[in-house]
Design brief:
The chain is an all-alpha fold. The chain has helices spanning 2-21, 24-31, 38-41, 45-69, 79-96, 98-109, 116-143, 152-172, 175-193. It contains nine helices and no strands.
Length: 197
């Protein structure tokens, strides 16, 4: 119980302040324990950060596995619908898990220098899973004639830019404005991707 409270408090602080801005005193206060008690579980701030990082990555990978076995498995759905559902699920996950989203933003944009290699490996793990799913959808769309033939990496890069751009919008706007923006940019994205009749 104390360990989970500690990790939750650490996630909130690292998400809000980043690695360098988060203090062990504040984490302990939020967890309801003494600062010295943190060392019982994690001898250093670095080890606590790595534990939170691992938990966040595993949570995101579990989410991606759910998406893969859920929204995109509908046989009768078009690739357009599947890609849109994956996008909506991705943004929905980030809305529902605001601390994880903020933590990942800090992790990706401002990783602690001494953890840079480890962080890049973890991000690579996430991209490996998501890219495999997205490539499969683009291939399916090209094979069934929904998407015009082009190098898969181009479509993949555009889809990541769409997701990443909307992820930034999450931090700036309310959910109503985000939904409007998502509908607009989705139409532009799909019109550039679809095969002309």
């Amino acid at each position: 119980m104390t360990l989970q409270r500690l990790r939750s408090a650490a996630l909130k602080q690292f998400a809000k302040e980043g690695y360098h801005g988060a203090s062990l005193s504040q984490i302990a206060l939020e967890a309801g324990i003494r600062k010295q008690s943190i060392a019982t579980y994690y001898p250093s701030k670095e080890q606590l950060y790595l534990a939170v990082c691992e938990e966040v990555i595993e949570d995101y990978l579990a989410f991606m596995n759910e998406v893969q076995s859920g929204p995109i498995q509908l046989e009768q759905a078009s690739v357009k619908d599947k890609l849109l559902r994956v996008l909506q699920a991705n943004i929905g996950y980030k809305l529902e898990h605001a601390d994880i989203h903020a933590f990942l933003n800090h992790l990706i944009h401002f990783p602690p220098e001494f953890l840079r290699v480890h962080v890049l490996q973890q991000i690579g793990r996430m991209e490996l899973v998501s890219s495999a799913m997205y490539r499969q959808l683009f291939e399916e769309g090209m094979d069934n004639g929904e998407i015009k033939r082009r190098p898969i990496e181009e479509a993949l890069a555009a889809y990541y830019c769409l997701i990443d751009g909307l992820s930034v919008q999450l931090m700036l706007y309310d959910s109503k404005k985000l939904k409007q923006t998502m509908e607009r940019v989705w139409d532009i994205f799909w019109n550039g991707l679809k095969k002309e009749a």
